[in-house]
Amino acid sequence: xxxxAHDDLEFAAEEPAAVSRVAARPWKILVVDDEEDVHSxxxxxxxxFEFEGGGLEFLSAYSAEEGxxxxxANPDVAxxxxxxxxxxxxxxxxxARQVREELGNPTVRIILRTGQPGQAPERQVILDYDIxxxxxxxxxxxxxxxxxxxxxxxxxxxxxxxxxxxxxxxDIVAASADLFQASSLELFARxxxxxxxxxxxxxxxxxxxxxxxxxxxxxxDDFVIVAGTGDFEGMESRLASEVLGEQELALVRKxxxxxxxxxxxxxxxxxxxxxxxxxxxxFLRLHREISELEMGLIQVFAGNVxxxxxxxxxxxxxxxxxxxxxxxxxxxxxNRALIDGVHVHRxxxxxxxxACKAGLHPDxxxxxxxxxxxxxxxxxxxxxxxxxxxxxxxxxxxRIMEQHPRLGFDILNRxxxxxxRAAARIALEHQEAWDGSGxxxxxxxxxxxxxxxxxxxxxxxxxxxxxxVYKKAWTAxxxxxxxxxxxGRMLDPALVGLLLENRDEFLDLRxxxxxxxxxxxxxxxxxxx
Length: 529
Hints:
Elements: E1 27-32, H1 36-45, E2 56-61, H2 64-73, E3 79-83, H3 91-102, E4 109-114, H4 123-128, E5 131-136, H5 142-180, H6 185-199, E6 205-211, H7 213-219, E7 224-229, H8 240-243, H9 246-258, E8 262-263, E9 267-272, E10 279-285, H10 292-336, H11 342-357, H12 362-371, H13 384-387, H14 395-401, H15 404-412, H16 418-429, H17 450-465, H18 476-486, H19 493-501, H20 503-528
Parallel strand pairs: 1-2, 1-3, 3-4, 4-5
Antiparallel strand pairs: 6-7, 6-10, 8-9, 9-10
């Protein structure tokens, strides 16, 4: 026991606080005092106290060390009623320092209480440890305790709001960065759902609705779910009108019509994109009211979403234009060599598939797909009498033909674009051999870039299966046998093994592309007729 006599703790009678009709989580109050009566009287006087719809949940500690343990286990304590003199004359001040410095809790409000007015802390202590109030137990009437606790809770509420706002803005920055990295509309849609739910710390239900311009015209005021969670998990391809109530659906339509965020009491709908380029709606349903802070965070995030979405559309358009130019260039080369132009499409898709089987990063697999069509671009500089010769090449002609990798590299290596750089590397090395017998550099094994090794495997595979001016098409069995024989010699044995293990998948992929090309040719002929 200390000299803090509980007889000095006096409270005047007060009317009990009115009970709020709004249910809310209680505010945690920690009483740290070495006298049991102080705990009992504090609970009695604050019985029925409510602040913003929430009552009080009392925690007790009878020493500074016990108080530290309780605070460590309950970082959401809102107010600490802290005795100064307990096991030591300054135990309460030591605990205040530990709460701020060791536990790193800046939001809990600390009210110091003492039965010894002469033990008042220095002003610097009040400032350094962010003490909210200091009272002598003899002056702490029921009314003053009510006022002190109310003031402290109000301060705690505001500090928590500021902290959540700061964290929310940091989350927005992080979430926006992830969205800007999306490489497809589907990934963007799923990423948006993930980032929004993470932003609001939701564990309830939310869904993402996708309505491209075409779908919007076909469906008329309806949307198709492409990703869902919570109540809407597993509802992909369902219509929004089938799973939403009338008020929720009206909120979605309002967002689309206004192209702005629309809030209900416990739900949100936001629209981004434009009709014709694809309008998208994000709908969130909460099992509680949306706070003003959350509304602000959503509106800020929605602005970033719109910019990220427009950026994605622009990138996709540029990538598509780039892809079309690349494939057109590849087809020009193949057509000049009297090779069907679909060869570049087939080797591009098969190179992508083999890269995936080899475990390359998805971005590298896509880069290879885009760069592959230009592997033979150097042939544009080869004379017709050599390029189109139907018979075997003589030594002089072979030397001319073997210049095409270097010529292709020189053509493509002038650009700093990542696709062009990859294409230049493939053009230069796609005739190198695993055993070092290839050209133009005589590279060996893994000194040859993996893109080039993959390119050589799929190029040989497709070329043997195709008819050329100098040969007939080989059968699948003959082609696969040749690949097996060249593994470890001309071709990377590991890559050959992957293709052979998945031979049916590669043959089916090639057949699908061949059939698609034939269907397009038939359609074009029908239009002409």
